[in-house]
Automatic annotation (TrEMBL):
This is DUF1330 domain-containing protein. Pfam families: DUF1330. SUPFAM superfamilies: Dimeric alpha+beta barrel. Residues 36-110 form the DUF1330 domain. It comes from the Bacteria.
């Protein structure tokens, strides 16, 4: 399962940029014991990198029993993060200091969806 964006993913993400802010939808499925590792990643990102790149957490919450979903479609956590632009997100994930923390996210998850959204 995909966990982290690839270079090709980021290239397409930037090529499809409609301009303006982007809210990234994160759907997260944790590995056994993964919440603690994700918390280490989350603390570093929230306190250091999101402010550095003008981003903010809009919503973060735990998933509960799905009301409407096929078996296996429920998620452990949902996160919405607003970035001022797709370029700001791309610069953040390319930051060598940020990359020192990404292994906590990768180790924490068995599956993830990272989907950019644009306002209607």
């Amino acid at each position: 399962m995909a966990i982290d964006p690839t270079g090709a993913d980021l290239k397409r993400f930037l090529a499809e940029d409609p301009g303006g802010p982007v809210v990234m939808l994160n759907l997260l499925r944790f590995a056994e014991g993964g919440r603690a590792s994700y918390e280490q990643y989350s603390n570093a990102i929230r306190d250091t990198f999101l402010p550095r790149y003008g981003a903010e957490v809009v919503y973060a919450g735990s998933g509960t029993t799905a009301l409407v979903a096929e078996p296996g479609q429920e998620w452990d956590a949902v996160l919405l993060v607003r970035y001022p632009s797709r370029e700001a997100f791309s610069r953040m994930v390319a930051d060598p200091e940020y990359q020192q923390f990404t292994h906590f996210r990768t180790e924490a998850l068995t599956e993830a969806v990272l989907q950019p959204t644009t306002p209607w």
